[in-house]
Design brief:
Structural class of chain A: alpha+beta
Helix content of chain A: 40-55%
Distance between the termini of chain B: 33 Å
Protein name (chain A): Putative basic helix-loop-helix (BHLH) DNA-binding superfamily protein
Oligomer: heterodimer
CATH class of the domain at 1-58 and 68-91 and 102-204 in chain A: Alpha Beta
Strand order of the largest sheet of chain B: 1-2-29-28-27
Number of helices of chain B: 0
Number of strands of chain B: 29
Region (Disordered) (chain A): 54-73
Subcellular location (chain A): Nucleus
Domain BHLH (chain A): 366-415
Distance between the termini of chain A: 140 Å
Largest sheet of chain B: 5 strands, antiparallel
Radius of gyration of chain A: 51 Å
InterPro entries (chain A): bHLH-TF_ACT-like_plant, bHLH_dom, HLH_DNA-bd_sf, MYC/MYB_N
Chain lengths: 543, 336
């Protein structure tokens, strides 16, 4: 414990000398070679005013400040460590209690600043050789200086999200003892060898640091390295060189094992394995999580009852199951263009159905604000047509669709009326002309009545016959029974009518008859016309 | 339209088929049971206003499924999801549906009563259409709904009020799933899976993004037996992406043995490693998500061949021995 205490003091001294936020010592795990885990650290950043169990005591200490500053800082770090451990244990309990009783810890999560959360969550990380900033630093055995940690890609710095939430911007790592140290600060500091040298001096210049708590003696490489470190304390350069050799050796040796353990850790792993990690206080391979997300995870892992499916399930070949053992047999091949038809309809079409209905309901309300937001193609189409319509229809100034439709209805009605009046105008005009003719004729008639009749009715009856199809057009002054007489005359000529159009305007009858000759009686067009002339003419005379 | 439903065929031992007069999509299995009878709700998929929800009774002894003409009711447009109240102690079954609104119905023996129609828009009588919802098992007064307006709404259904509404994504939210009383995840057309904690509504964590940007994620299933894992499916993809929430970004497994796109996924209710999926290839596959993925990918444990594209898969804790699937106008219960 004394050794650990010593390490922490040393870290404290180093981080305070440059006034950065935290220092962490990542050590190579004694149980999993090649894996770096959180071993110790010192938190030197801001803290919140505390309101928990030890509040009074703490306040006193804070007031004292000065010489006891170190102690307060160390205490705070220790409390963070305890909090982490209590959270880890809490995450193990499988209760459904939303507020699990934590083992008494001086701090609760609510008391923590963002930077403290960052520091605490770092305790859950572990890195394999070459993984993450610590892993790579160790693998390359160099100093890593990252001055945009919060913006770094998560592959470069897996805690970048976390760093962002804690405003940590600059992170520096370099190998130290059986692991490496990491320093961080909430400012952007450009790489400066002086700072690195200053920390290194502080860390390495005191010989007693060789006493370490982490038992690595099992690994002879480590021991060798340890010796080298001790032997070269005075000469940094030489130390670095030797250490580099030594680490290279370690790296080579560890590579295979390291790979394996990495995979095992990263893959699904058994639930038990994960829980053990949490319980042992070293967390799991968490990357790219922020402190809040970490809380989420802790919360989730509180209750994960683990059951196993009964043996029946595994014997899927048993006759009881509808499922058979999987073999790579043919299913229906996918048809790219129409895959997930129903699912897509549910997600995309159905909402549009609702929206379309909504649009129309809104129209009725006269409230169409929302329509601008709709992206539906159909609605767009409709909108487009509405805009075309609005260009055609003189509007009364309002621009919504309801007004537009009203305008359109009014406009159509106006047009209809215009058409009607124009038509009737034209007809009466025609009639007037004809009447004019009549007057002329009449004037003539007064001189020669027979001529008049001839001229008038020959003009008004047209008969055209194509083989047996006979089309008759008659225009004459209307009177009762005339049509009946026309049909009588036609039937006497063996004509069978199959379509008749007639209308009367201002007493003038216009009659169009399409008919067929029933037999080859030899009725010619001329005969028919004459017969019809007689019908109309005789009566005309009477009139 | 009601009595629709008269056909239910019983076959020997290991599966039961119910044939509906219309295409089926949504489906839910009731957690409550009266002796050997169990209720199953199925929702029609008709591209018209008038749609239908039918309540069927499954008898495990006689292996028969019978419709309840009394318990059949209209739904405006197809329901996008159906779910029963997860807490079996409630006296009457409560069924929820999503569509234009979140609707709750109380199912009695011979009648159905609408309980509430939940609309999250304060300003109008309309709310943005809902793509899905999830009922919180640990906190059954909570329902989370996902909407095409990029938001998720958390309801207190007992009070009938909005607890909170979060802008969850950049695009339509397609599905939502609870992991814990106050933690949920959602998937979206923006291609991301996000995790939310109701204690801190300002933040969400993206734990997965589809490899091709903007490939929509369509459905999401959180493994209730082992909350580390959730699974999602992508548009036009035969993959089921399994995520470990502790190592975001990189999926722990991609299950890709379907020969067509995947339409539905459901985790096993009593095992922490099994998941069932249904796809356009008409297959229902059961997978065991392994501890370590082999180099050639993961093969399913077992399979079932249905008559058409499988659109729905339900695997309920109430009936862990049966998996419900829907294809075409049929609903089948398959013995596991």
């Amino acid at each position: 414990m004394a050794a650990k205490e010593h390490l922490r003091r040393k870290l404290a001294m180093a981080v305070k000398s440059i006034n950065w936020s935290y220092a962490i010592f990542w050590s190579i795990s004694s149980t999993e070679p090649g894996v770096l885990t959180w071993c110790d650290g010192y938190y030197n950043g801001g803290i919140k005013t505390r309101k928990t169990i030890q509040a009074d005591e703490m306040e006193e200490e804070e007031e004292e400040d000065g010489g006891d500053d170190d102690e307060a800082g160390l205490r705070r770090t220790e409390q963070l460590r305890q909090l982490y451990e209590s959270l880890s244990i809490a995450s193990e309990s499988h209760g459904y209690d939303p507020q699990p009783r934590r083992p008494p810890a001086a701090l609760s999560p609510e008391d923590l600043t963002d930077a403290e959360w960052y520091f605490l969550v770092c305790m859950t990380y572990e890195f394999t050789n070459g993984q993450g900033l610590p892993g790579r630093t160790l693998a390359k055995n160099t100093v890593s200086w990252l001055s945009d940690a919060h913006l770094a890609d998560s592959k470069v710095f897996s805690r970048s999200l976390l760093a962002k939430s804690a405003s940590i911007q600059t992170v520096v790592c370099f190998p130290y003892l059986e692991g490496l140290v990491e320093f961080g600060v909430a400012e952007k500091v450009l790489e400066e060898q002086n700072i690195v040298k200053q920390i290194k001096d502080l860390l390495f210049d005191v010989p007693s640091q060789k006493v370490r708590e982490i038992p690595l003696e099992s690994c002879s490489n480590m021991l060798d390295h340890h010796d080298i470190v001790i032997n070269n304390l005075d000469n940094m350069l030489e130390y670095d060189q030797n250490q580099e050799q030594s680490w290279r050796f370690v790296d080579d040796d560890d590579d295979d094992e390291g790979e394996i353990s990495f995979h095992q850790n990263n893959s699904m792993g058994s639930s038990d394995c994960i829980s053990q990690n949490l319980a042992s206080g070293h967390g799991d391979v968490w990357s790219d999580v922020d402190d809040r997300y970490h809380c989420v995870l802790l919360r989730i892992f509180k209750n994960t009852p683990r059951l196993v499916l009964g043996p029946r399930f595994r014997n899927c070949d048993s006759k009881e199951s509808a499922f058979v053992s999987w073999k790579n047999c043919d299913g229906m091949e996918s048809n790219g263009s129409c895959s997930q038809v129903l699912l897509k309809s549910v997600l995309y079409k159905v909402p549009k159905m609702h929206e379309n209905r909504l649009v129309w309901s809104r129209c009725e309300d006269g409230n169409v604000d929302r329509m601008m937001k709709l992206e539906d193609d159909e609605v767009k189409d409709i909108d487009h047509r509405f805009s075309v319509l609005s260009a055609l229809v003189p509007s009364r100034g309002k621009v919504d669709k309801v007004s537009l439709l009203d305008d359109t209805i009014d406009y159509l009605k106006t047009l209809e009326r215009k058409v009607e009046s124009l038509q009737s105008d034209r007809k009466s005009h025609d009639v007037r002309e004809r009447t004019c003719d009549n007057y002329c004729n009449k004037r003539k008639a007064s001189c020669d009545p027979t001529d008049l009749q001839e001229e008038r009715f020959s003009d008004c009856i047209t008969v055209s016959a194509i083989e047996k199809d006979v089309t008759i057009e008659i225009r004459c002054r209307w009177r009762d029974n005339m049509i009946v007489q026309v049909f009588d005359a036609m039937s006497s000529l063996n004509l069978e009518s199959h379509s008749v159009h007639s209308y009367t305007v201002d007493g003038i009858l216009t009659l169009t008859i399409e008919s067929k000759l029933k037999s080859c009686t030899g009725s010619t067009a001329k005969m028919i016309r004459q017969a019809l002339q007689r019908v109309i003419g005789s009566k005309f005379g009477v009139d | 339209m009601d009595s629709s439903t008269l056909e239910s065929q019983t076959r020997p031992d290991n599966f039961v088929t119910y044939e509906s007069p219309f295409t089926l999509y949504s489906m839910a299995i009731s957690p409550t049971t009266t002796t050997t009878h169990r209720r199953i709700a199925v929702g029609s998929f008709i591209e018209e206003y008038a749609n239908r929800i039918n309540i069927l009774t499954f008898n495990e002894d006689t292996l028969s499924i019978k419709p309840n003409p009394n318990l059949s009711f209209d739904h405006p447009y197809p329901p996008t999801k159906l779910m029963f109240h997860p807490n079996p102690t409630v006296s009457a079954d409560i069924l929820a549906s999503s569509g234009d609104f979140l609707r709750l119905y109380s199912l009695r023996d011979t009648s159905i009563e609408p309980i509430s129609l939940l609309n999250n828009s304060k300003s109008s009588e309309f709310c943005a259409p809902l793509t899905s919802f999830d009922w919180n098992e640990l906190e059954p007064r909570r329902i989370g709904t996902s909407s095409i307006d990029t938001t998720c709404t958390i309801w207190d259904v007992e009070k009938g009020v909005v607890e909170t509404q979060l802008i969850a994504h950049d695009k339509e939210v397609h599905d939502i799933a609870w992991g814990e009383a106050g933690v949920f995840a959602s998937v979206s057309a923006d291609g991301s899976v996000r995790v939310f904690d109701l204690r801190d509504k300002e933040h969400s964590t993206i734990i997965y993004e589809s490899p091709q940007p903007d490939t929509p994620l369509l459905r999401l299933a959180w493994n209730k037996q082992d909350l580390r894992y959730m699974a999602t499916i992508l548009m036009d993809s035969n993959k089921i992406v399994v995520l470990d929430i502790r190592s975001p970004t990189l999926p722990v497994a991609e299950l890709e043995r379907h020969r067509g796109s995947v339409n539905a996924i459901a985790w096993a209710p009593v095992s922490c490693q099994h998941i069932c999926s249904g796809g356009d290839d008409s297959q229902a596959l059961i997978w065991e998500v392994p501890n370590v993925a082999g180099p050639n990918g993961i093969d399913p444990v077992s399979m079932y061949m249905a008559g058409a594209e499988i659109n729905q898969v339900q695997w309920s804790a109430a009936m862990p021995d049966w998996i419900g699937i829907a294809f075409g106008n049929k609903m089948q219960l398959l013995k596991v």
